[in-house]
């Protein structure tokens, strides 16, 4: 019994095994392996087109993989042979998907619903809360992200930074175990970046959510993450704690990207 | 011009107006239903439904509405299906305009950004929930102005039913001309009545548009 619990506890939150993905014959991920323990904050860095965002999108089931397997706390997302995986049928995949939330680069707020309903409706439709309860929770979350007064505005009446915070509140409302952020700071003024950082850190403290974040901002990644993954051509070329990766990366591609002198072998 | 002639004209116009209004309203309702059924069928996950919807849309857009009404009224009886002129008129107009409406529904649904579908997936909505709560409320207001145009087209096209012996306004005007030899008066009145119907449809569509997007009217 104790052994079983230990096994359960040692299961990674996200386990990506031998995953390959190509778009129109161009390989984006090639035999990728990655494990992320529960509660870890991971920043994915690397040049454009290196496959960072694809990882988030396939975890969110916005893309499907060509080969391999993805497991969320041990639960597989695909069935069939590893070389021809097939996403689980709708009913089963929804159970897995409900554990994952995503904040999009351009937010993806619903323009016809006010801020409050953007946050309340997903809770209602997922059967997590009735109308009143969902609205109360939405108000609480809006307070938490500092937008208590904006509940009845439409998304288009908000600034980029405010939309971002609504998108975060909306994702949090469903209480996911894993939160994915696709370039959360790219659409924001530089001054707002530290606000997002503070908010994410607060969420981590409160909920212990596992987070994967794709970004181009080195400083943001450094302050946010427990672990940095540096991608190039669909492969992880650097994997370590921020201090190590930023000060003394071992791979020359990372060194070049960070503007550090290249090491001769 | 005697009062008798005038009251005769008025009676004829009112009788014709009734038929034209019945045709316009019933035809529009049928067209609306067809537009949704086949417009959504056009983007269905099932190939069979997509193919069937495309066949309907292209068949009815690609042939003349006159011929379609003639078909329903004169040709179907050859297959043992006898329709009343009114039913043939409603079906012909409704199915024809519905085919155009279906393309409006399809394009409005497809015009909804990919980001909306992706956000719905990320929030774990079912396909039905995505459509019902997110896509349709955004797509429907986009359809309304074109639906309004289609309804006006249907109202104007309804004059062809005089060719299958339905006594709509145009038919009544013709009859009046034959009876009295007057030409200016009946057709002037007919024009005005059609224009008033047009204004009515315009007003109706504006009201529905206002209901469908309250936020945009909050000036």
Automatic annotation (TrEMBL), chain A:
<dbReference type="InterPro" id="IPR003439">
    <property type="entry name" value="ABC_transporter-like_ATP-bd"/>
</dbReference>
<dbReference type="InterPro" id="IPR027417">
    <property type="entry name" value="P-loop_NTPase"/>
</dbReference>
<protein>
    <submittedName>
        <fullName>Ectoine/hydroxyectoine ABC transporter ATP-binding protein EhuA</fullName>
    </submittedName>
</protein>
<keyword id="KW-1003">Cell membrane</keyword>
<keyword id="KW-0472">Membrane</keyword>
<dbReference type="InterPro" id="IPR050086">
    <property type="entry name" value="MetN_ABC_transporter-like"/>
</dbReference>
<dbReference type="GO" id="GO:0005886">
    <property type="term" value="C:plasma membrane"/>
</dbReference>
<feature type="domain" description="ABC transporter">
    <location>
        <begin position="14"/>
        <end position="258"/>
    </location>
</feature>
<dbReference type="GO" id="GO:0016887">
    <property type="term" value="F:ATP hydrolysis activity"/>
</dbReference>
<dbReference type="GO" id="GO:0005524">
    <property type="term" value="F:ATP binding"/>
</dbReference>
<comment type="similarity">
    <text>Belongs to the ABC transporter superfamily.</text>
</comment>
<keyword id="KW-0813">Transport</keyword>
<dbReference type="InterPro" id="IPR003593">
    <property type="entry name" value="AAA+_ATPase"/>
</dbReference>
<dbReference type="GO" id="GO:0015424">
    <property type="term" value="F:ABC-type amino acid transporter activity"/>
</dbReference>
<keyword id="KW-0067">ATP-binding</keyword>
<dbReference type="InterPro" id="IPR030679">
    <property type="entry name" value="ABC_ATPase_HisP-typ"/>
</dbReference>
<keyword id="KW-0029">Amino-acid transport</keyword>
<dbReference type="Pfam" id="PF00005">
    <property type="entry name" value="ABC_tran"/>
</dbReference>
<dbReference type="InterPro" id="IPR017871">
    <property type="entry name" value="ABC_transporter-like_CS"/>
</dbReference>
<keyword id="KW-0547">Nucleotide-binding</keyword>
From TrEMBL, chain B:
<protein>
    <submittedName>
        <fullName>Amino acid ABC transporter, permease protein</fullName>
    </submittedName>
</protein>
<dbReference type="InterPro" id="IPR035906">
    <property type="entry name" value="MetI-like_sf"/>
</dbReference>
<dbReference type="GO" id="GO:0043190">
    <property type="term" value="C:ATP-binding cassette (ABC) transporter complex"/>
</dbReference>
<keyword id="KW-0472">Membrane</keyword>
<feature type="transmembrane region" description="Helical">
    <location>
        <begin position="184"/>
        <end position="205"/>
    </location>
</feature>
<keyword id="KW-0029">Amino-acid transport</keyword>
<feature type="transmembrane region" description="Helical">
    <location>
        <begin position="48"/>
        <end position="73"/>
    </location>
</feature>
<dbReference type="InterPro" id="IPR014342">
    <property type="entry name" value="Ectoine_EhuC"/>
</dbReference>
<dbReference type="Pfam" id="PF00528">
    <property type="entry name" value="BPD_transp_1"/>
</dbReference>
<feature type="transmembrane region" description="Helical">
    <location>
        <begin position="20"/>
        <end position="41"/>
    </location>
</feature>
<keyword id="KW-1003">Cell membrane</keyword>
<dbReference type="GO" id="GO:0006865">
    <property type="term" value="P:amino acid transport"/>
</dbReference>
<keyword id="KW-1133">Transmembrane helix</keyword>
<dbReference type="GO" id="GO:0022857">
    <property type="term" value="F:transmembrane transporter activity"/>
</dbReference>
<feature type="transmembrane region" description="Helical">
    <location>
        <begin position="79"/>
        <end position="100"/>
    </location>
</feature>
<dbReference type="InterPro" id="IPR043429">
    <property type="entry name" value="ArtM/GltK/GlnP/TcyL/YhdX-like"/>
</dbReference>
<keyword id="KW-0812">Transmembrane</keyword>
<feature type="domain" description="ABC transmembrane type-1">
    <location>
        <begin position="17"/>
        <end position="205"/>
    </location>
</feature>
<dbReference type="InterPro" id="IPR010065">
    <property type="entry name" value="AA_ABC_transptr_permease_3TM"/>
</dbReference>
<dbReference type="InterPro" id="IPR000515">
    <property type="entry name" value="MetI-like"/>
</dbReference>
<comment type="similarity">
    <text>Belongs to the binding-protein-dependent transport system permease family. HisMQ subfamily.</text>
</comment>
<keyword id="KW-0813">Transport</keyword>
């Amino acid at each position: 019994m104790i052994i079983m619990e230990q096994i359960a506890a040692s299961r990674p939150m996200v386990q990506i095994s031998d995953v390959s993905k190509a778009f129109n014959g161009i390989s984006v991920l090639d035999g990728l392996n990655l494990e992320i323990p529960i509660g870890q904050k991971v920043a994915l860095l690397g040049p454009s087109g290196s496959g960072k965002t694809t990882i988030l999108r396939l975890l969110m089931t916005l893309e499907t993989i060509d080969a391999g397997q993805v497991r969320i706390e041990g639960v597989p997302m695909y069935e069939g042979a590893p070389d021809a995986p097939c996403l689980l049928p709708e009913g089963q995949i929804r159970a897995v998907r409900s554990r994952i939330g995503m904040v999009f680069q351009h937010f993806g707020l619903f323009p016809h619903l006010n801020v409050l309903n953007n946050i309340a409706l997903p809770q209602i439709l997922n059967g997590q809360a009735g109308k009143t309860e969902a609205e109360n929770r939405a108000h609480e979350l809006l307070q938490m992200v500092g937008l208590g007064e904006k509940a009845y505005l439409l998304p288009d009446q908000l600034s980029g930074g405010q939309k971002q915070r609504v998108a975060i509140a909306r994702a949090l409302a469903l209480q996911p175990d894993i939160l994915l952020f696709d370039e959360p700071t790219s659409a924001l003024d530089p001054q707002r970046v530290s606000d997002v950082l503070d908010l994410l850190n607060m969420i981590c403290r409160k909920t212990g959510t596992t987070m994967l974040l794709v970004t181009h901002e080195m400083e943001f990644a450094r302050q946010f993450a427990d672990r940095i993954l540096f991608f190039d051509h669909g492969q992880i070329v650097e994997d370590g704690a921020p201090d190590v990766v930023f000060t003394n990366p071992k791979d020359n591609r990372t060194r070049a990207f960070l503007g550090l002198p290249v090491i001769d072998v | 011009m005697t009062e008798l002639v005038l009251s005769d004209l008025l009676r004829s116009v009112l009788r014709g107006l009734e038929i034209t209004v019945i045709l316009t309203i019933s035809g529009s309702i049928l067209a609306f239903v067809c537009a949704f059924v086949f417009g959504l069928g056009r983007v269905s996950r099932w190939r069979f439904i997509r193919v069937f919807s495309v066949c309907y849309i292209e068949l009815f857009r690609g042939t003349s509405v006159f011929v379609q009404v003639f078909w329903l009224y004169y040709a179907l009886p050859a297959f043992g299906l006898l329709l009343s002129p009114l039913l043939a008129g409603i079906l012909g107009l409704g199915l024809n305009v519905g085919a155009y409406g279906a393309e409006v529904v399809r394009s409005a649904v497809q015009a909804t950004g990919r980001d909306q579908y992706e956000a719905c997936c990320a929030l774990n909505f079912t396909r039905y929930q995505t459509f019902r709560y997110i896509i349709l409320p955004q797509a429907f207001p986009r359809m309304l102005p074109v639906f309004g145009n289609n309804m006006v087209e249907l109202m104007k096209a309804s004059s062809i039913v005089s060719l299958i012996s339905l006594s709509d306004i145009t038919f009544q005007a013709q009859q009046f001309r034959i009876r009295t030899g007057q030409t200016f008066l009946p057709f002037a009145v007919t024009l005005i009545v059609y224009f008033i119907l047009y204004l009515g449809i315009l007003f109706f569509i504006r009201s529905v548009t206002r209901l469908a997007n309250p936020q945009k009217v909050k000036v």
